[in-house]
């Protein structure tokens, strides 16, 4: 169980880091201020600040987020609030503290009467102990804001906010998270191919031959090419398997081309075996051929990723043909339960599982649902068509509806997963 928990956290963290790093990287390239890069949700347990971004780890390891300036609610400092400020030698504010549990040296307490941290960059108010001495300080554009939970972030002037970037830059920033998930899958599957020493090929050749089985008894060798079975030409491994499985306990005439170029014909009688559905199929005791070339290993990441993408899109498309079912989706509970089974298959199995999950995360995030990356891209497209963005009020309402639907779906999916994996 301990191994499963650690694997679950590590796999989920890698997926989140790659996804959010896509948003982070392209936001930075577009000149958008990234205020926080968070792994997990809830109360923070660790933070590290580098340049203008605060990196945090939060207590619930079930996701993460990148806080871009202008893309989320700012910490609201209202007139009448008391905050602590730190001043530099020019009497410019370098730090604004709203965290009651943190006391700073040389802090100047001030009761705010007016504030602007986006355009004019100032704080106006009354110093502690005085109801008549009104002061006004300029806020440095790189000033820190210590939020009410103790997180230190940089203030966000308008020129570094999300909306200040061009439409193509914003679209690329939104698209970059899912894109990185696909890239991660390609990298993961490529590593998997090299660790395995090769990839399964669809050539009409024999892989490893199992001793004592019909193929071994007939004198077949690994690398032999099956050019025909019962005078029917074979061009792929899939065709070879289909013929063998359809003829349990029936003699088959194999036309073989050996690795040295010589040809021969042998009779092979597939033994009877049980399929998963209980039906009888033929087996001769050979494995699929494996391509060990460098090119095959390198290309496997791309070809296998594409195959998984097609499978997922087909499954999503079935919603329109077969109807919606909550069983089509799985949340963190399902991922944890599946991880428990995958761990038993070893490191290669975990790598495969991480790649598949990464593709799932990328595709799901591209669905045109408000609050997901696909929903944001849809709003970007609407802006491009209209020539102007939706009002913040309308976009906020759309996003709120999307968040509500996602939360409802997550609750239903989680309960369904609990029933499926733990209450049966």
Write up this protein:
The chain is α+β, with helices and mostly antiparallel strands and 424 residues long. Among the domains are: 74 residues, no CATH class; 91 residues, Roll (Pdz3 Domain), CATH 2.30.42; 128 residues, no CATH class. The protein is 41% helix and 25% strand. Strands 3-4-7-6-5 form a five-stranded mixed beta barrel. Strands 11-10-12-13 form a four-stranded antiparallel β-sheet. Strands 1-2 form a two-stranded antiparallel ribbon. The longest helix has 30 residues. It is elongated. The two termini are 19 Å apart. The mean pLDDT is 86.
Any key phrases for this structure?
5-stranded mixed barrel; 4-stranded antiparallel β-sheet; 16 strands; alpha+beta; Pdz3 Domain; 424 residues
The coarse overall form would be elongated
The share of residues in extended strands comes to 25-35%
Strand arrangement in the largest pleated sheet = 3-4-7-6-5
Element string (H = helix, E = strand):
HEEEEEEEEHEHEEHEEEEEHHHHH
The strand count comes to 16
In this structure, how is the largest beta sheet organized? 5 strands, mixed, barrel
> What integer value in Å does the Rg equal?
30 Å
Stretches where pLDDT is under 50 for at least 5 consecutive residues are none
Q: What's the oligomerization state?
A: single chain
Span of the ends, CA to CA:
19 Å
What is the overall pLDDT average? 86
Number of DSSP helical runs:
9
């Amino acid at each position: 169980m301990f191994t499963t928990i650690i694997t679950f956290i590590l796999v989920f963290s890698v997926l989140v880091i790659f996804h959010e790093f896509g948003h982070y990287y392209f936001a930075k390239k577009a000149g958008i201020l990234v205020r926080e890069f968070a792994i997990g949700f809830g109360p923070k347990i660790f933070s590290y600040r580098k340049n203008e971004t605060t990196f945090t780890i939060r207590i619930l390891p079930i996701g993460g987020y990148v806080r871009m300036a202008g893309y989320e609610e700012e910490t609201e400092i209202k007139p009448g609030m008391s905050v602590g400020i730190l001043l530099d030698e020019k009497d410019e504010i370098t730090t604004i503290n709203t965290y009651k549990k943190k006391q700073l040296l040389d802090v100047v307490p001030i009761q705010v009467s007016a504030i602007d941290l986006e355009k004019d960059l100032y704080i106006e108010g009354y110093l502690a102990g005085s109801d008549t001495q009104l002061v006004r300080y300029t806020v440095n554009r790189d000033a820190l804001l210590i939020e009410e939970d103790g997180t230190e972030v940089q203030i966000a002037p308008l020129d570094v906010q999300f909306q200040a970037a061009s439409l193509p830059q914003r679209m690329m920033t939104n698209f970059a998270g899912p894109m990185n998930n696909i890239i991660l899958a390609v990298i993961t599957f490529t590593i998997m191919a090299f660790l395995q020493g090769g990839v399964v090929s669809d050539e009409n050749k024999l892989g490893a031959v199992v001793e004592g089985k019909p193929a071994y008894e007939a004198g077949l060798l690994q690398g032999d090419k099956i050019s025909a079975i019962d005078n029917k030409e074979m061009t792929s491994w899939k065709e070879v398997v289909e013929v063998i499985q359809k003829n349990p306990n029936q003699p088959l005439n194999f036309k073989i081309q050996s690795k040295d170029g010589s040809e021969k014909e042998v009779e092979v009688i597939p033994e009877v075996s049980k399929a998963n559905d209980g039906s009888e199929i033929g087996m001769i005791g050979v494995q699929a051929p494996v391509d060990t070339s460098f090119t095959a290993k390198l290309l496997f990441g791309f070809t296998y990723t594409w195959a998984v993408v097609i499978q997922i899109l087909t499954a999503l498309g079935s919603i329109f043909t077969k109807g919606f079912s909550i069983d089509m989706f799985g949340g963190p509970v399902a991922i944890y339960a599946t991880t428990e089974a995958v761990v038993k298959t070893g490191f290669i199995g975990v790598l495969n599982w991480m790649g598949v999950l990464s593709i799932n995360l990328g595709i799901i995030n591209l669905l045109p649902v408000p609050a997901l990356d696909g929903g944001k891209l849809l709003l970007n497209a609407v802006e491009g068509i209209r020539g102007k963005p939706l009002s913040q009020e309308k976009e906020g309402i759309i996003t709120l509806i999307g968040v509500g639907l996602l939360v409802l779906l997550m609750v239903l999916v989680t309960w369904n997963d609990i029933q499926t994996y733990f209450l049966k």
